[in-house]
Backbone:
């Protein structure tokens, strides 16, 4: 048996008893066509994400964000769950996951059928008013922005992570940004921007999931950002095995009981297939035809 097969067998043995907390990052969504901030090297790709302090203090920064988002949002909206997202949902339905903590803001875990999901960095699907706190729907806002900018047209742009896009400055300068329909205040995506703190109640929900878990499986994340790394770090300090499925360096390499560097969607789908063949009593998997395998 080769080393890769040995590692996969260890992964099966860690997941089979259940109570697994899955912590996902951008790497699980790249197979759906959504760019990530870091490739296999762990180094930041060329991108210029908005900073929280800049966003809340500068009208020009907000104009830049919404102009670029008006182009990038349809790309995120069209993205569909891939084999990795679907496998995660199957593992949860089979009772093997305590839940999912995701650093992604694309909603693809929920679209695939996952139910217990803590969106650590929020979601692109909602918008919040910085003035009155009102929440609104991103799809509706997209239509409003297009109506408010009837002569604004972008034929091509480079799409970057989190629904962003690279635009020439003249197009940004001509864009009319949205305002809150209730109070006229500035609008912000309901995501945790760079330099912004994760809400305390969200962090607590994530800690609660970790408390109920015996194993942590990190999927598609370098864990370079502390907001995600801390869960792997605490799990390791509490003696809970940490398994990594990621192509390239992660900040938690030294903590891991297991690391597999392989395509995420294919590996997770294979994991579901293996577990469906050796599932314990009470565990049920849907096979590829939609029937149930005991």
Residues:
């Amino acid at each position: 048996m080769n080393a890769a097969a040995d590692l996969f067998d260890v992964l099966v043995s860690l997941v089979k008893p259940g109570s697994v907390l899955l912590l996902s990052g951008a790497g699980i969504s790249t197979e759906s066509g959504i760019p990530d901030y870091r490739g296999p090297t762990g180094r930041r790709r060329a991108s210029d994400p908005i900073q929280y302090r800049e966003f809340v203090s500068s009208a020009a920064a907000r104009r830049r964000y919404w102009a670029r988002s008006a182009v990038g949002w349809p790309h995120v909206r069209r993205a569909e769950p891939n084999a990795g997202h679907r496998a995660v949902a199957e593992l949860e339905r089979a009772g093997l996951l305590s839940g999912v903590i995701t650093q992604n803001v694309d909603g693809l875990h929920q679209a695939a059928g996952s139910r217990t999901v803590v969106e650590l960095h929020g979601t692109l699907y909602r918008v919040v008013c910085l003035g009155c706190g009102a929440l609104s729907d991103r799809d509706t806002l997209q239509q409003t922005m297009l109506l408010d900018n009837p002569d604004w047209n972008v034929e091509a742009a480079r799409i970057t992570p989190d629904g962003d896009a690279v635009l020439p400055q003249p197009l940004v300068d001509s864009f009319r940004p949205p305002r809150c329909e209730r109070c006229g205040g500035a609008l912000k995506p309901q995501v945790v921007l760079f330099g912004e703190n994760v809400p305390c109640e969200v962090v607590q929900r994530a800690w609660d999931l970790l408390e109920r878990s015996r194993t942590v499986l990190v999927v598609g994340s370098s864990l370079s950002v502390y907001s995600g790394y801390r869960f792997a770090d605490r799990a390791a300090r509490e003696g809970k095995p940490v398994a990594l499925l990621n192509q390239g360096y992660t900040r938690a390499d030294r903590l891991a009981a297991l690391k597999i560097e392989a395509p995420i969607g294919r590996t997770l789908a294979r994991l579901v297939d293996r577990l469906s063949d050796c599932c314990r009593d009470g565990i049920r998997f849907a096979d590829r035809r939609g029937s149930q395998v005991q």
Remarks:
- Residues 287-294 have pLDDT under 50 and may be disordered.
